[in-house]
């Protein structure tokens, strides 16, 4: 299908790249369908999700493990069943990225990762109980601290 | 909104399986104990609002060449 995007004009979106947030994303509870726009560079940890029905709404995402190697959390049984997850290999994890005016302060939200069941395309932004993570981890600091 | 008065060690039940107990009252702070099934998510409302606000910020960003950011750090 053809999707009007915030940043890339009209693009062809494959059905298999469309994910459904049944509860929306906090702050955008009414928007449910998003399309994943992968980075042209397959090595890049960044990608976008574009709201299918709202061209002006898009989020930049990052693979959190690419930035913070020791990121870990446990999915609650509730999340596992809500998303219909049957095995770990079905799970894709993303962190939402914020880019402020000072681009060196680019941050990602590790407290509330986006979980996608790649089999049935159900997605949710879940809130972790862990106190280890916050909504704002500075990506540059994480990269420096790991010597990347 | 329902408003109730409770004293220390008193409990409120929400439905059959959620209990909220006042554990301690000190000045303007109250310690609360919550007994609820594991599948009921519980978090501070500030955290939920913080996540909403962070998402709104995330949604307002322009196009960014991320890979340049990382490479030029």
TrEMBL record, chain A:
The keyword Coiled coil does not apply. InterPro entries: Flagellar_assembly_factor_FliW, Flagellar_assmbl_FliW_dom_sf. The keyword Chaperone applies. Gene3D superfamilies: BH3618-like (2.30.290.10). Keywords: Bacterial flagellum biogenesis, Cell projection, Chaperone, Cilium, Cytoplasm, Flagellum, Translation regulation. PANTHER family: FLAGELLAR ASSEMBLY FACTOR FLIW. Acts as an anti-CsrA protein, binds CsrA and prevents it from repressing translation of its target genes, one of which is flagellin. Binds to flagellin and participates in the assembly of the flagellum. Interacts with translational regulator CsrA and flagellin(s). This is Flagellar assembly factor FliW. It comes from Ruminiclostridium herbifermentans. The lineage of its organism: Bacteria, Bacillati, Bacillota, Clostridia, Eubacteriales. The gene is fliW.
Automatic annotation (TrEMBL), chain B:
Its main location: cytoplasm. It is found in: Cytoplasm. It holds the Pfam family CsrA. One of its GO terms (biological process) is negative regulation of translational initiation. One of its GO terms (cellular component) is cytosol. GO terms for molecular function: mRNA 5'-UTR binding. Keywords: Bacterial flagellum biogenesis, Cytoplasm, Repressor, RNA-binding, Translation regulation. NCBIfam families: csrA, PRK01712.1. A translational regulator that binds mRNA to regulate translation initiation and/or mRNA stability. Usually binds in the 5'-UTR at or near the Shine-Dalgarno sequence preventing ribosome-binding, thus repressing translation. Its main target seems to be the major flagellin gene, while its function is anatagonized by FliW. Homodimer; the beta-strands of each monomer intercalate to form a hydrophobic core, while the alpha-helices form wings that extend away from the core. Belongs to the CsrA/RsmA family. This is Translational regulator CsrA. The gene is csrA.
């Amino acid at each position: 299908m053809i999707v009007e995007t915030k940043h890339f004009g009209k693009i062809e979106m494959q059905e298999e790249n469309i994910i459904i947030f049944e509860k929306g994303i906090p702050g955008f509870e009414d928007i449910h369908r998003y399309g994943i726009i992968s980075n042209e560079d397959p090595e890049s940890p960044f990608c976008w999700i574009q709201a299918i029905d709202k061209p002006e709404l898009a989020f930049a995402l990052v693979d959190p493990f690419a930035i913070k190697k020791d990121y870990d959390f446990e999915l609650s049984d509730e999340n596992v069943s809500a998303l219909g997850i049957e095995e770990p290999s079905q799970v894709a994890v993303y962190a939402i990225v914020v880019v402020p005016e000072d681009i060196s302060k680019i941050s990602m939200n590790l407290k509330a990762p986006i979980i996608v069941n790649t089999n049935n395309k159900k997605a949710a932004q879940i809130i972790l109980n862990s106190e280890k993570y916050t909504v704002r981890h500075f990506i540059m600091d994480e990269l420096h601290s790991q010597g990347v | 909104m329902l408003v109730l008065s409770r004293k220390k060690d008193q409990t409120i039940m929400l439905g059959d399986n959620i209990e909220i107990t006042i554990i301690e009252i000190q000045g303007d702070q109250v310690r609360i104990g919550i007994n609820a099934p594991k599948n009921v998510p519980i978090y501070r409302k500030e955290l939920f609002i913080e996540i909403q606000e962070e998402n709104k910020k995330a949604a307002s960003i322009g196009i960014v060449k991320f890979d340049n950011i990382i490479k030029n750090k």
